[in-house]
Amino acid sequence: MIACQRDGAVWTARITRPDKANSLTRDMLETLAGFAEDAAGAAQVLILTGEGRVFSAGADLEQAREGLATDPVWERLSGAVAAFPGLSIAALNGTLAGGAFGMALACDLRIAVPSARFFYPVMKLGFLPQPSDPGRLVTLVGPARARLILMAGARLDAPEALAFGLIDRITEDLETTLAELTADAAAADPAHVAAIKRMTC
């Protein structure tokens, strides 16, 4: 349910559970985390994307009730993405919800299709967000807008998410935009990519 592609300098992980809104099981999260960890030192570009009309609805509901919603594997995944020394991109093929925010927030860039929606209903569901998510969200959108999303349960459309700074670009054609955004980093020396990444942290 995670399709992993290693294409030279560009590694892509695709969530392939569209019949379940790409909701994430523990095994899927471990696969994503391991893929991101392996990409460090082996790739210059890391892409996370999904299949269908939803990037991910977050945790699989059955497993969430069994404890997945607060499992440390979410932090392992977002930490691995954040630690990746190259360019990381969340290519949001559709809606981003719940715990799936973590891996997207940890990426360097977030691009989305016009139909994407964004919501993180931890207040409604009675869970705390993953520990690193609020800080990363505040860095991107500011404290008030972070509270709007996490505490007031706001649902953003793509233009509003772009205006907030939650995403960096809206595109009708993810594949073409990805090719344009990754070309320079994919062709560069890995040490050069890592150096520029460090300078912008």
Give a concise summary.
By secondary structure, the chain is α/β, with parallel strands linked by helices.
Explain what you see:
The protein has 201 residues and is of the alpha/beta class. The protein has a single domain (2-199), classed as 2-enoyl-CoA Hydratase, Chain A, domain 1, CATH 3.90.226.10. It has 10 helices and 10 strands. The strands form 2 sheets. A 6-stranded mixed beta sheet has the order 1-2-3-5-7-10, sandwiched between helices. It has a 4-stranded mixed beta sheet with strand order 4-6-8-9. α1 runs parallel beside α3 (73-83) and α6 (133-141) crosses α7 (143-150). The longest helix is centred in the first third of the chain and has 14 residues, at 26-39.
